[in-house]
From TrEMBL:
Protein name stated in the entry: Regulatory protein PocR
Gene that this polypeptide is encoded by: pocR
UniProt-listed InterPro entries: Homeodomain-like_sf, HTH_AraC, HTH_AraC-typ_CS, PocR_dom, Tscrpt_reg_AraC-type_HTH
Domain of life: Bacteria
Alphabetical list of SMART domains matching this protein: HTH_ARAC
Keyword annotations from UniProtKB, A to Z: DNA-binding, Transcription, Transcription regulation
Amino acid sequence: MSQDNFNLNKLIDLKKWDNLQDSLAEVTRVAIIIVDYKGNPVTKHSGCNRFCKEVRSNPNLVKYCQKCDSRGGIEAVRLNEPYIYLCHYNIIDIAIPIMIDGKYIGAVMAGQVKLSDNNVEDVLEKIAVLSKNSIAEKALDDFKTYYDELPVLSYYQVKKIANMLFAMCNYLVEEALEKNLILDIYKKTIKNHTGIDSNILTGYTMKNIENVKKEMSNTMINAYVEDKISSDRQDIKVTDILKPAIEYIYDHKSENVKLEKMAKICHISPSYFSRLFKKETGENFSNYVSKLKIEWAKSLLEETDMQVNEISDELGFSESGYFIKIFKKYEGVTPFLYMKYCKKE
């Protein structure tokens, strides 16, 4: 993966993130900002408390904050998870690392709240301690009114917020990586009129690559079976309970969908899902999915130059031999013969 892909501005649409960040800060009552791997802010500071604004605007005081930010970020990277700590004013802060393939590219810094359960403070790291009569200690007296305005949360609430932001960051990064990979592959293929360059894949995780492969497979299959999909979907009459499963099957054609997963998506037990599915559609789940995939396979055999084993892979069959067996079961001929006599010129 090129170094550009590690740029936060490319990975995350920071303009859109700003609005989300404002909403998150308002709902959670914690201040939030994203910094790059050098500690430089790349977003505005949402929900920044007045006390912290005053402290950070003073060149003699901000160095204490920077020391805390630096230490918190280092610990978050080392642990690869949110790191909750106390600043020199006993204010809770959270460092949430943004990592790609083990590389640190930035962090979400959150916090600026006080704890309601003071006993927890003893188990948290306090990164800097104020010396008596220091300029920082004097600032605490000068801005006491603002300090008293800091939101108060329990440690449990802080941990929940930290974990939520961590999960959100991981999701955003994974989504962005996969979109970037698709775009890079598309640009390279269009420019050189060649297949996928293996160098493009460097730095991406297997999960990214597998997800992109599924996305590209679904896109390609849709291009050839779109008319059939539209008419098929309109003909499906099921209760709202089963609709999520039906939608999933159509939207994930390259996946070997399992009954247990569909039941989970519908929020019912596998046994109830199986009974309800047969009642609603007139056939059991595995037969229903197999028939659908054979119909899609027929379109690909008619419309494309794909080989049988490629179609088998694209439609999520475990092996081409099984695909051929299922195809012959429903069509009476092998996919090879079907392609020979039914392929459109």
